[in-house]
Design a protein that fits this description.
The complex is a heterodimer of chains A (about 240) and B (about 260).
Chain A: E1 8-12, H1 19-26, E2 38-39, E3 42-43, H2 49-56, E4 59-62, H3 74-85, H4 90-103, H5 119-131, E5 137-141, H6 149-165, E6 169-173, H7 177-183, E7 186-191, E8 194-199, H8 201-205, H9 210-217, H10 233-238
Parallel strand pairs in A: 1-6, 1-7, 4-5, 5-6
Antiparallel strand pairs in A: 2-3, 7-8
Chain B: H1 2-37, H2 39-49, H3 54-78, H4 85-123, H5 126-132, H6 137-175, H7 180-190, H8 193-219, H9 225-254
Classes of the chains: A alpha/beta (about 240), B mainly alpha (about 260).
Amino acid sequence: MAIPRGRVTAVMGPSGTGKTTLLRLITGQLRADSGSIEVAGQDMRTLNRAGLYELRRRMGMLFQNGALLTDLSVFENVAFPLREHTDLPYSLIRPLVLTKLQAVGLRGAADLMPAELSGGMSRRVALARAIVMDPEILIYDEPFVGLDPISMGVIVRLIRRLNDTLNLTSIVVSHDVEEISTVADHVFLLSGGKVVAKGTPQELRNYPSEIVRQFVGGLADGPVPFHYPAPDYFAELLASGEDS
Amino acid sequence: MNVIKELWRTLIESLTGLGAVVRFLLRMIVLIPSALWRYDLVLAQIWNAGALSLVIIMLSGLFVGMVLGLQGFQLLQRFGSEESLGVAAAIGLVKELGPVVTALLFAGRAGTALASELGLMRATDQLSAMEMMAVDPIKRVVVPRFLGGVIAMPLLAAIFSMIGIYGAQLIGVQIMGVDAGSFWSQMRGGVSLSDINEGIVKSGIFGVACSLIAVYEGYYATPTAAGVGRATTRTVVTSAVVVLFLDYLLTAAFL
């Protein structure tokens, strides 16, 4: 897999296929048992903790539930990386944070606490926090899960707009075919821990593969079976039924 | 044969667990100087672990002292030496009951709060988010909480003993009629600096043990509702057993 700079790349696939694991490997939260991963020219296998943290300063990540720090206000959440990594005074932090909050449309929510936000708003605040250090790479872990159509539309627009205006490299892990086809430049489709298809969202729609057709078409049965592997149905029903 | 195998496995698992806790402690110790630099974070945790435990500590201290006053008076009266109630209550509180009961209460109030807070931070990806922001959660979140507990415990134990002595006085002097002069003067003469040192050392060590157990259990909690619940329960149970075990060792060492 090669993820191109400056583009929005989607990693898709059925649940449990290794999307999040791949993401954790890219961010160094997991170490690969074999094979190699290079991020921004650095081999993830050889990086020590300091090197990893240095690399992560150039990355932003949006977690599925936002992962906002619950004891800090929206403003302080977005200011958190600046306070931790720089000695900037409040007079400089304030405009930086407000600019990022304005970019996600939540400048007016700066004084709210995370518990007062809706799911979509939490994710937008987390997005503002992810871009506050001006990263080169922005990673989204299932950004559309559990959102209403309006919030989903907002996030889709933000992914595209942030990628283009900030010249980012975006990686979106998702299984929402519709949303991904509107936002991604390039898609990798994973199944059983392997890349089974790659190309533009349009190319994927016409991809000559059963698993791709099942996934893109949302078919209940196919190479990913509807039934979890089990013994023969009738044999099991007609079995003696004694407590094992 | 199976029993021996099982015992051996349990022993190895326990030793591995203990090794992990020691490694965690060493990692925290390395980070303590830089965490102290952010003294505002430590102060906030001293407030959380200490000031917010004050009511329960003071109330318990008062009742324990009152019970000591009653029992002590009954016992000492048999030997006609009820004037020694002050010294008996003070030594009992300063050397034993103060540090031990405070540690048990601390584990129940502050320890569980620490473990569940960290466990929930783990379950809601807040710790992973910090790691992704290149912020070491052990340095930013865990060490200040650990230090807050370690610093708060001796202070809480001192307050517990102080209120306890007042409770013993309340019963012994005010109600049972022990002479106030003998109560206080015998206490001043009978309690030596080494007794107070013993109490301080014990509560310091209990502070390290209880805070370490709480932050370790919380930090490594399974990120589910059941996992956080288990971490909280284990914090109380392990802390209680460890405190009582350490108390025996320390008492023996101070003899």
